[in-house]
Amino acid sequence: MRLKLIFIAFLVVFLLIIGKLFYLQILNPYTAQDELYLKTRKILPQRGKIYDRLGQPLAVNITNYLLYFEPKKVTDKYVFTKKVEDILQIEEATISAKLDSNKDWIAVKTVDKDTKTKLEATQLAGIGFENKNNRYYPEASLSAHLLGIVGKTDLGDDVGYFGVEGFYDKDLAGLPGLLKSDRDLLDKPILIGTQEKIDPEDGRDLYLTIDKSVQKIVKNKLLQALETYKFKEGCVIVANPYTMEILALSCLPDFDLDKYYEFSDSYFKNQAISDLYEPGSIFKPLIVAAGIEEKSIKPDEIYNEEGPVKIGEYTIRTWNSKYEGKISITRILEKSSNVGMVYIGEKMGNQKVYSYIKKFGFGELTGIDLQGEAGGYLKNLDNWYPIDYATVTFGQGIVVTPLQMITAFSSLINDGKLLRPYVVLQAKNSDQEKNAQAQVVRQTISPKTSAIIRKMLVDTVEHGEVNWAKPKGYKIGGKTGTAQIAVQGKYDATKTNASFIGFAPADKPKFIALIVLKEPQSSIWGSETAAPLFFDIAKELLVYYNIPPER
Amino acid sequence: MKKFLVPAFLILFLINIFTFVTGINLADKITFYEKETKRLYQENQDLETKVFSVDSLKYASSLAEALKFTKNAQPVYLDNLKYALNK
Prior knowledge:
The structure holds 2 protein chains of 2 kinds.
Chain A: H1 2-27, H2 34-37, E1 38-43, E2 50-51, E3 57-69, H3 77-88, H4 92-98, E4 106-111, H5 113-121, E5 127-136, H6 144-147, E6 149-152, E7 158-161, H7 163-167, H8 169-173, E8 177-182, E9 195-198, E10 205-208, H9 212-229, E11 233-240, E12 245-252, H10 271-274, H11 284-293, E13 302-305, E14 309-311, E15 314-316, E16 325-328, H12 329-334, H13 338-348, H14 350-359, H15 386-392, H16 402-413, E17 417-419, E18 424-429, E19 432-435, E20 440-443, H17 447-462, E21 477-487, E22 490-504, E23 511-518, H18 530-544
Parallel strand pairs in A: 2-10
Antiparallel strand pairs in A: 1-8, 2-3, 3-4, 3-5, 6-7, 8-9, 10-18, 11-12, 11-23, 13-16, 14-15, 17-20, 18-19, 21-22, 22-23
Chain B: H1 2-54, H2 57-66, H3 82-85
């Protein structure tokens, strides 16, 4: 009888449980009770890593720890302060100030894993850590402008700004996953409950066209040049002229990627793609090439350099006010004759000069895959005056970005192909791979004209006004530029943009490099600042690329 | 009836206990592997960071500076060996 009673009692209890479950799961399944055990958590994807062209890491992920104190849990403030002071190397007064008993939680600083381990070993109550995903840059700020930074949105999510991080943010960010799991009070899964997991899709890894060794050479040389020439800003771009893969890009001043928040916005601007400047004489080969292509001039044609040229109320002179009389077109380039360039412009005609400037891509974006590119500015044809057509032939009165300049110049030496420059060679994740390829925008000049202009540019380096310390045994082509900077509508003769664009080896260039130094103090001339820097870099690159001397 | 009910009740009771304990064990294992996966991921990331750090040009430069290696090695081109070809 007693056993029957117990059995009936159990039966009643089970029926009650079944009844309750029937109510919770069938009759009224969507109540607040759901949230009691069901934990929904976003699983963050891993941000894609960035490597150089040889697979060497430039930006990877790291977990840091936000150290926080819970002052109310601290039992002995003196012991606590002493132990923490030794590990964190923070002054005692600072730690004491943080231990405000009125507060439940106070953030202290971000620490690495070793520091976290040391602090945990003290077993002090009132210390806690919160995981933080950050970027780690093994090469520090070697490629600061190129990489860009990873900041936070209002919601605390990672977002890339500037450079590759900005341009490829969606590829790098990936897609978050979701975990829906019924958990008990100890956060252990309840197996008969909901257990759903959608895996996150990690961001794509990017392989850049940059070679970190070339980047290192360029940055080191640029830093040395800063000490020697004391320029205000400086940029070096090195590219493969046949593909327009950017091999190195470095600008100064740059910023510390790890402490980017300590720098003002102006430091984040990549001058190589965002700054507009008057190119000066490095623009001349473009006009000469256009003249040869249009058969308006021949390389051996003779021009009589008699003296200054008058265009309306303006007088155009050579840079040193010296005139050599009868000279060839090649000599015009060698001695960088402004009046000679005006002659070439006049022989071509205004319409053709303008059309070639457009053809070389000025006034439009190059389409590089970096955030923050400026397109330059080219006036409408209606707003061009005779003096504009004259000055543009020697690179004044037009503004371009350094990247536009090197892109246009590359077409002069690569058989006339204007290419879209790019910095990402490959984007890949576990199941997909996207490879970038050289993209021809248009043909600017014929291969024949390209060969002629390459030879003229070699002669320009060989017989130029300055005898540079060139790498021995190599044929190198190039052109210097010194453009005065306009200040309040007038050119200031003491402030210049000094530049040099060169390529080597001349017959089949392995690289082209553009140097732009803004307001150098040691000398205003490109031939005395940018050109020596180019040859310094070229010497190292010829060795790095294992290019033997030709003669 | 009594003979049938008592063993049935005991079997159900034991199955219930077994299921409950197995569930707890499985939940423990899941929690353990969740933590372990996280720890291994973290350890892997830390090791990767260390490898990247010692493999960097920055580290090599700092070592070179400390050892006072300041001069660049000059290349010798075999196809232009002047001293060997001079007659």
